[in-house]
Amino acid sequence: MEIIEKILKARESRSELRCRLTEGRTxxxxxxxxxxxxxxxxxxxxxFFNVVLADLKRYLAAHRIExxxxxxxxxxxxxxxxxIAPLVASEVxxxxxxxxxxxxxxxxxxxxxxxxxxxESFEESHPVGRVIDIDIFCADQVPVSSxxxxxxxxxxxxxxxxxMREETHSKEELRSYILPGIHRFLETHRRKxxxxxxxSLATKAALHEVSLSPKPGTVDRFDSGSHxxxxxxxxxxxxSALSPYFYRLAxxxxxxDGPSESALPSIRAIGLEMEEAMFRETGGVNTQKGIIxxxxxxxxxxxxxxxxxxxFERESFVxxxxxxxxxxxxxxxxxxxxxxIDTDSQRRLTHGEQCFRxxxxxxxxxxxxxxxxxxxxxxxxxxxxLQESLKNPGDLYLEQHLQEPLTRTLLSIMSVNNxxxxxxxxxxxxxxxxxxxxxxxxxxxxxxxxxxxxxxxVEYCRKENLSPGGSTDLLAVTLLLxxxxxxxxxxxxxxxxxxxx
Length: 501
Ligand SMILES: [Zn+2]
Prior knowledge:
Layout: H1 3-22, E1 28-33, H2 43-62, E2 73-77, E3 80-86, H3 89-92, H4 112-125, E4 132-137, H5 160-166, H6 171-211, H7 232-255, H8 263-282, H9 289-308, H10 314-328, H11 332-342, H12 351-364, H13 366-372, H14 376-389, H15 399-414, H16 420-425, H17 428-443, H18 447-464, H19 469-486
Antiparallel strand pairs: 1-3, 1-4, 2-3
Helix pairs in contact: 2-6, 6-7, 6-9, 6-19, 7-8, 7-9, 8-9, 9-10, 9-19, 11-12, 14-15, 14-19, 15-17, 15-19, 17-18
């Protein structure tokens, strides 16, 4: 059979389906794409169709136009992607259902003409609206028309039918105009989707980290640990201040296209703005500077990896993230800290800088050394413990399921991390004591034993006035990566839904 015949046949079966679905009882609404030439659909077009369909359904629902979901159909045939659904009868008879309060403008009383004109507004306001066809058919199979003519894709002010009649454009010309437009739309859509998702996971990770209670030495829900200038409330303020910037960090990574050494300055520029926002909300207290740095890199890199490797294999996702963290943070300690050893700087050194000066790269390199190495503490000690103990998706909904796994993960991190907060405030001896107390608590076999050792660690931190804030920052970034890895689909959309039904 010729392609054109196949397409005509597909259109014929669509109109048969339209009759069958409603048996003349109610009107229908259908969605299709006006794609010139052949094929009428492919993987990307099907994704585009699904995005438009989801938007349209929300748009209709927002205007209180109800579709008969049970009898709705979505499939792909030779004529392309297609969706059809009967309109729910009470919506289209022009009468208010019994009990509807009488008001001058009742949204329930919607005529087919109104629905048609709303659908036209949807098409017109859509960035690629000229390929979107929403058709309304009355119960007796007559199409509802507003008499408005669709504009040509290419000639701004000419009706499409005129160009078709005059054969102004070849199908190839039209396709080469339309398909890149659809591609651009999907890229934008995907960027927003990915960045929104990543930003919300980042806020979630920061909140779960600070809420974990009890924690040795750091702020938790009921205790301020070794701090007298901040408590749980300070952290709520600061997390709220940071949360809008998580989107921007992800977006910067998604769009990043420069040489690898320009990644960190881009992250830092947003990070500095975040610090200002944090200090504003905490009255000048440093609550989450470590989070800003670690989440900055993680969100930037993850979004970049998702963008770059559109169709990556799941297993290699984490490897890509590690690889890009290493690439973007290459020689970070060397560039930022090595020069300090020789120069007798007049400026006051930060805690991290002083630690590096005193203890060298491996012990005193702190969070800079950790990211330069691709977050080994997170990927080797934090993430495996968390993944092992939180296997069920339902585990994340209740605190009672979270506390034990999060505590174990923190202990695992603390048992190896050369926390520069402890090194700076106290010294090597206290750091080694904390590491061994954490590892004893981790190795304990019974829960009473574990609790005994954990209490010992908490007591020790209290007595010595220690705050393992470097480790809780790594717990937060472990949580963020755990949430990221849990999302099953970072692909552009669900491709399975375009399968023939
Ligand atoms: Zn034209």
